[in-house]
C-alpha cells in the first residue's frame, strides 16, 4: 500500500491498492449478496420455516463429494473435470508458494504451500478444464442452446488468471514483470466479479442446495 | 403414415414442433394486447423474490439437468426439451425483453410449459445446485393462466374445479347418490358393509379422485370392501370438497387451488377425523 505512495508505478498499483479494493469488493459484495438473499427469503414467508438443517447437510455432502450423486455418476467425464477445475480454482491460489511469499512480505505470515511442480500441474489441469468447458459450450447441443455471451465471459474471467500465472511462471510470451502485472489484474477482476456475476454460485450453491435438500426431505425423497 | 406439418419457432430456430391445433391456445391469444401482456408479466415476475433470484442468478447454464427430463430423453436429446432450455425460451426471454413480448410468444410459452413439462421436479434432483426449475416453470404457467392462454382440456378442468369443486362437473346430489348406490351394490356381497357418509369422529376420511364416482365407480366399491375387511372406522364427506385432485394447482390458479385445499381441511375439522386417505 505504502510502496505505491512512494513509487506510483503500475506494478505497485496492482500489488497494493487494487488488491485491497479487490478484496474489499469481493468480501463486502459477497456479504451484501448473501444478506440480501437471506432477507428476501425471510420476507418470502414460505422459505425459512421449511429449512431442514440435517437434510440440507446431507444434500450438500452428496453434491460436494465426487460421484456421490446420481448425476455425477451418470456423467463421469464432466464430473472429473468439474471437480479438478473447482478444487484447483479455489485452493491452488491459497496454497501457492509465490502468493504466500507476497503475503509474507506484506504481513510476515505464511501457511502451508504446495510444491511448484505440483502447482504447475494443477494450473495446467485448470487451463485444460477451461478449454474443455469452452468446447462443450460450443459443441454440446444442450449447452450450446442455452449459452450466451455472459457464459463465455465468466469462463474467460476464471481462465485468464490461470493462463497468465502459468505464462509468468515459465516466462513465456511477455517479460516476467508485465505478465505478472496482467496476472494480478485478471486475478483482481475475478475476485471483484464473483459477487456480481453468476460466479456468485460460489456462495449461492450452499443456499440453493439447503433449500432443495429441505424440500426433498419434506417429500421423503433424495435429491442426489 | 402421413407426415405431419412442422413449424419452426420465430424466436428460436432450434424449436421445431409438429403443428398441433388447440382452441385454448390458438383462439385465446387473439384477445391479447402488448400492454396486457406486459402488465401481467410484471405483476407475476415483478417482485423478484428469493426463489426467483436464486435460480436466475445461480444457473450457470451447464445443461446437466437435461438427462433428468423425460421429454429430453424421449426426443432423442433434442436440446429444446432440456429443462434449462425451457427456462431460456420462456422466463429469460420475458425478463430480457422486460415483458415486451407479443401474443405469439405467449402462445409458444404456453405450449412449452403446459405440454412439454410435467412439473415433476426431476431436474432439481439432477441440478448440481438443486435449482427449482419447476418453480420457474410454474411462474410462467401463472403468467399464461392469468392471460387465459391454457390448453383447452386443462382450462376445462380448472373451470370444473372453480364451479363444482371437483374436476368432473359432478353435483353434490350426484355424489351422495353414487355413494348410496354403491353401498347397495356391495351390500349383496358383504353383510353389514356400509359407506358411512359424514360420520363424525371417524378414524379415517377417504377422499377419492373426481373420476372415481364419475367413471371409475368400481373403485368405490373396492375401497369399501378393503375398509370393511380391514375393520377401519371410516367415512366419506357428504359436503364439498371431496375431490382430492387439485388440477388448478397445475395451472397455478391460486384462488381455486386454495379453495380446494381449504375445503378438504374444513371437512376434516367438521368431522373431527384423524387421518385423510387420498386415492393415488
Please estimate the helix content of chain B: 40-55%
- Give the terminus-to-terminus CA distance of chain B: 37 Å
CATH architecture of the largest domain in chain B: Orthogonal Bundle
> What proportion strand of chain A?
under 5%
- Envelope shape of chain A: globular
| Number of E-state strands of chain A | 0
**The CATH C-level class name of chain A:** Mainly Alpha
Number of strands of chain B: 5
Total number of helices of chain A: 12
Tally of individual helices of chain B: 14
Description of the structure:
The complex is a heterodimer of chains A (224) and B (280). With 224 residues, chain A is mainly alpha-helical. Chain A has a single domain, classed as Fumarate Reductase Cytochrome B subunit (Up-down Bundle). Chain A is 75% helix and 0% strand. Chain A has 12 helices and no strands. Chain A has helices at residues 2-6, 10-15, 17-43, 53-64, 70-74, 76-91, 97-107, 116-139, 141-144, 149-169, 176-193, 201-218. Chain A is globular. Chain A starts with a helix and ends in a 6-residue tail after the last helix. Chain B has 14 helices and 5 strands. The longest helix of chain B has 18 residues, at 254-271. Chain B has 2 domains: 6-150, Fumarate Reductase Iron-sulfur Protein, Chain B, domain 2 (Orthogonal Bundle), CATH 1.10.1060; 158-278, no CATH class. In chain B, the strands form 2 sheets. A 3-stranded parallel beta sheet of chain B has the order 4-3-5, with no helix packed on it. A two-stranded antiparallel ribbon of chain B has the order 1-2. Chain B has helices at 23-26, 34-45, 50-58, 70-74, 83-96, 103-115, 122-126, 133-146, 152-164, 172-187, 211-214, 217-230, 247-251, 254-271; strands at residues 6-8, 16-18, 204-207, 234-235, 275-278. Chain B is elongated. Chain B has 280 residues and is mostly helical. Classes of the chains: A mainly alpha (224), B mainly alpha (280). Chain A binds chain B through residues 37, 40-41, 43-44, 47, 59, 63, 70-71, 74-75, 78, 82, 140-148, 151, 154, 198, 200-201, 204-205, 207-209, 211-213, 215-216, 219, 221-224, and chain B through 14, 49-51, 53-55, 57-64, 66-68, 72, 77, 79-80, 82, 84-85, 88, 121, 124-132.
Amino acid at each position: 500500500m505504502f510502496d505505491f505512495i512512494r513509487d506510483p508505478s503500475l506494478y505497485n498499483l496492482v500489488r497494493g491498492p487494487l488488491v485491497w479494493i479487490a478484496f474489499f469488493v469481493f468480501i463486502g459484495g459477497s456479504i451484501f449478496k448473501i444478506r440480501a438473499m437471506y432477507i428476501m427469503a425471510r420476507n418470502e414467508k414460505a422459505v425459512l420455516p421449511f429449512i431442514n438443517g440435517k437434510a440440507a447437510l446431507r444434500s450438500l455432502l452428496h453434491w460436494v463429494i465426487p460421484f456421490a450423486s446420481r448425476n455425477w455418476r451418470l456423467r463421469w467425464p464432466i464430473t472429473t473435470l468439474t471437480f479438478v477445475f473447482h478444487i484447483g480454482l479455489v485452493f491452488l491460489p491459497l496454497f501457492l508458494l509465490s502468493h504466500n511469499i507476497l503475503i509474507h512480505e506484506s504481513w510476515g505470515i505464511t501457511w502451508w504451500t504446495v510444491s511448484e511442480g505440483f502447482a504447475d500441474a494443477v494450473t495446467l489441469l485448470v487451463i485444460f478444464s477451461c478449454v474443455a468447458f469452452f468446447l462443450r459450450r460450443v459443441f454440446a447441443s444442450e449447452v450450446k442452446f442455452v449459452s450466451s455471451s455472459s457464459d463465455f465471459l465468466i469462463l474467460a474471467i476464471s481462465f485468464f488468471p490461470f493462463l497468465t500465472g502459468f505464462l509468468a511462471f515459465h516466462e513465456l510470451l511477455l517479460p516476467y514483470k508485465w505478465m505478472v502485472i496482467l496476472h494480478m489484474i485478471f486475478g483482481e477482476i475475478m475476485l471483484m466479479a464473483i459477487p456480481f456475476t453468476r460466479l456468485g454460485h460460489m456462495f449461492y450453491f450452499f443456499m440453493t442446495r439447503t433449500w432443495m435438500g429441505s424440500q426433498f426431505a419434506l417429500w421423503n425423497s433424495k435429491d442426489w | 403414415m402421413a407426415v405431419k406439418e412442422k413449424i419452426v419457432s420465430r424466436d428460436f430456430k432450434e424449436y421445431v414442433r409438429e403443428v398441433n391445433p388447440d382452441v385454448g391456445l390458438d383462439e385465446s391469444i387473439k384477445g391479447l394486447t402488448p400492454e396486457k401482456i406486459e402488465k401481467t408479466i410484471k405483476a407475476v415476475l415483478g417482485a423478484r423474490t428469493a426463489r426467483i433470484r436464486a435460480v436466475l442468478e445461480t444457473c450457470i447454464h451447464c445443461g446437466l439437468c437435461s438427462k433428468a427430463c423425460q421429454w429430453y430423453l424421449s426426443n432423442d436429446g433434442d436440446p429444446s426439451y432440456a429443462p434449462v432450455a425451457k427456462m431460456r425460451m420462456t422466463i429469460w426471454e420475458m425478463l430480457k425483453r422486460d415483458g415486451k413480448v407479443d401474443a405469439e410468444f405467449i402462445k409458444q410459452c404456453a405450449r412449452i410449459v403446459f405440454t412439454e413439462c410435467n412439473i415433476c421436479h426431476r431436474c432439481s434432483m439432477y441440478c448440481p445446485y438443486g435449482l427449482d426449475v419447476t418453480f420457474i416453470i410454474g411462474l410462467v404457467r401463472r403468467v399464461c393462466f392469468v392471460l387465459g392462454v391454457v390448453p383447452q382440456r386443462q382450462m376445462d378442468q380448472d373451470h370444473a374445479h372453480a364451479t363444482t369443486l371437483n374436476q368432473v362437473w359432478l353435483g353434490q346430489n350426484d355424489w351422495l347418490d353414487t355413494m348410496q348406490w354403491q353401498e347397495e351394490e356391495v351390500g349383496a356381497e358383504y353383510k353389514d358393509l356400509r359407506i358411512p357418509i359424514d360420520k363424525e369422529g371417524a378414524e379415517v376420511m377417504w377422499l377419492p379422485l373426481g373420476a372415481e364416482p364419475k367413471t371409475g365407480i368400481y373403485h368405490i366399491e373396492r375401497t369399501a370392501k378393503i375398509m370393511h375387511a380391514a375393520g377401519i372406522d371410516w367415512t366419506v364427506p357428504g359436503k364439498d370438497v371431496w375431490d382430492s385432485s387439485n388440477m388448478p394447482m397445475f395451472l397455478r390458479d391460486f384462488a381455486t387451488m386454495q379453495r380446494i385445499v381449504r375445503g378438504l381441511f374444513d371437512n376434516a375439522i367438521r368431522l373431527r377425523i384423524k387421518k385423510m386417505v387420498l386415492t393415488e
